[in-house]
Design goal:
Elements: H1 3-32, E1 60-68, E2 78-87, E3 93-104, E4 107-122, E5 126-141, E6 160-175, E7 179-185, E8 191-192, H2 199-204, E9 212-213, E10 216-223, E11 225-226, E12 231-242, E13 248-257, E14 261-268, E15 272-280, E16 285-294, E17 305-314
Antiparallel strand pairs: 1-2, 1-17, 2-3, 3-4, 4-5, 5-6, 6-7, 7-10, 8-9, 10-12, 11-12, 12-13, 13-14, 14-15, 15-16, 16-17
């Protein structure tokens, strides 16, 4: 065995140990205070974080999104969502729905949600909306397949083949064609990944590491400014909170050129910086892309995150509704 082989093998084992440690950290962080999937293009599809957004397009609106986080890192999160929402014939009511698949490490979750919003005018051009959400969360965890640093770690000794939990949420949003302010709690119920009385759950009770879903809160706002005849500026922010974890926030700046092309940048607190673009192929069909570059320790192991979104709207527009939309 030559000198290069002798030095390469310890380096390879060290890299694997780092990957195992980081993957355990990823799963452990999620289990301690499970954060809902994050989306860089949230301002173009806020139904995922606020059920009061349902019907805001004033026609049938569909969004499909695929996010691939920390590309190049084994077990990194991947998320796919499909959202649909529309006002009902009684225009004060709107209906929406979300399908979600979220995978990170050995964990896969599926979400099925239905949203109902009640809206009414506040003044001549803005609306106030109250939304309710009901749905089901399906959790699967192949924890026993992990090669953990501590072979006796009780958290990872038991698989969860399929665990279904009901979920409820609510939201409120005030919006017009130029602004929005929203507060959403899409998940109100706390759920545990392990069944009551299981060995894994019993070993975690009273410890700082209890695997399960926690309450989530999202505060968002944005406004559109005219910078000239053909350019508009839309700053937005999103504050994210989950029970048991510190608050985090996103700050975004997007520019719209000739009512056809969005170009923007964002900062996610102590996590990532990035850029995004969205193009209106027609007034009804859009395609968007976002790239995140991590500023945390993950930048040593990943080339960044990619997010692709396709949107389509159809149906008759209400009088006074502009196209394309700013939100």
């Amino acid at each position: 065995m030559d000198q290069h082989t002798n030095t390469a093998m310890p380096m390879h084992r060290t890299a694997n140990r780092w990957k195992t440690a980081l993957l355990s950290m990823l799963v452990g962080t999620a289990a301690l205070a499970q954060q809902d999937p994050q989306f860089s293009q949230y301002m173009f599809n806020m139904l995922a974080i606020n059920p009061a957004y349902a019907g805001s397009a004033e026609r049938v609106s569909m969004r499909a999104l695929s996010r691939h986080q920390w590309v190049g890192f084994e077990g990194a999160p991947t998320t796919q969502t499909l959202t649909v929402h529309s006002p009902l014939p009684m225009e004060s009511l709107a209906l929406g729905g979300t399908l979600l698949r979220d995978s990170y490490g050995p964990v896969t979750q599926y979400g099925f949600n239905v949203d109902m919003a009640y809206r009414f005018f506040v003044g001549d051009r803005s609306k106030l909306s109250f939304g309710l959400r009901g749905g089901l969360n399906l959790f699967q965890g192949d924890f026993a397949s992990l090669s953990t640093i501590d072979a006796n770690d009780q958290v990872y000794l038991q698989n969860v083949s399929s665990k279904a939990d009901p979920q409820f949420g609510f939201g409120v949003m005030w919006y017009s064609d130029r602004h929005f302010v929203g507060l959403g709690m899409p998940k109100l119920l706390r759920t545990d990944f392990y069944e009551d009385g299981s060995a894994s759950l019993d070993s975690l009770v009273g410890s700082p590491f209890q695997a399960g879903q926690r309450n989530h809160l999202f505060l968002s706002a944005g406004y559109v400014f005219d910078l000239g005849l053909y350019t508009k500026f839309k700053p937005t922010f999103l504050v994210k909170g989950v029970n048991g974890a510190p608050f985090s926030f996103d700050i975004n700046a997007n520019f719209l050129f000739y009512e056809k092309f969005w170009l923007g940048a964002f900062y996610r607190h102590e996590d990532a910086v990035g850029a995004m673009a969205q193009y209106y192929i027609t007034n009804d069909l859009t395609v968007g892309y976002a790239y995140d570059y991590p500023v945390s320790v993950m930048n040593n192991y990943s080339g960044g995150s990619h997010e692709i979104m396709i949107g389509f709207e159809f149906g008759n527009k209400l009088k006074g509704i502009r196209s394309p939309r700013y939100f």
